[in-house]
Amino acid sequence: MSTAPSSVPEVWLRGPVEGFDPLVMPIVHALIQAREDLAQLAATVPAEHVWQRPGGAASIGFHARHTAGALDRLFTYARGEALTEAQKAEMKAEGTAGDPLPHVVRGVEATIDRALDQLRATTREALLHPRTVGRAALPTNTLGLLFHAAEHSTRHAGQAVTTAKILGGG
User: Fold this and answer.
1) For the CA atoms of 33, 39, 44, 49, what is the dihedral angle to 10 degrees?
2) 8 within some domain
3) Residue-wise burial string across 10-33, b where 16 or more C-beta atoms lie within 10 A, e elsewhere
4) In this structure, is residue 39 part of a structural domain?
5) Measured between alpha carbons, how far is 30 from 34 in angstroms, rounded to an integer?
6) Quick one: CA torsion of 85, 69, 105, 92, rounded to 10 degrees?
């Protein structure tokens, strides 16, 4: 994995992404950045590192899988829907070792693509609609869920990058 700085600016410094309301642009930028960071990892991380847990920390594979799962769940709540049994089962399996990283990252990319489609269709009026999270029905709104989904995605992508650096000795 290269530690040299990229000549391409971070996504948020590349300007607006066509087709999205400016109010959701920071969310769009964060999701695209997470997708790019994880795609770079998938291309560079040795297979034997993907499910290792250095010092008991979560694995690269977990962080990637959790990025997709949490994003899917949070965007489900943003639509005002409850989680399905399949989503709950997938959440329980996020830390289970198995799939190679390129396969896991393809799943993340598909989830991000669906999230971006949802963002394109989200109206300004819908951003402040009241929403709830989880069995406890904790209060938030659509914008709060979308923002948290984006920052949560970048957090786990960053943790995957850091774990890869630790395992790679870089």
Assistant:
1) 100
2) no
3) ebeeeeebeebeeebeebbbbbbb
4) yes
5) 6
6) -60
**Is residue 6 included in any domain, yes or no?**
no
Say if residues 77 and 14 touch (Cβ distance below 8 Å).
Answer: no
Residue-averaged pLDDT of the chain: 94
* Average of per-residue pLDDT across 4-28: 91
CATH assignment of the domain containing 130: 1.20.120.450
Structurally, how many domains does the chain consist of? Answer: 1
Give the Cβ contact number of residue 104 at 10 Å: 25
* 1 located within any domain: no
| Residue 6 pLDDT > 90 | no
pLDDT tens column, 63-73: 999 999 999 99
For residue 141, the enclosing domain spans: 20-168
Q: State the alpha helices, DSSP H only, in the chain.
A: 25-44, 60-78, 85-92, 101-121, 142-168
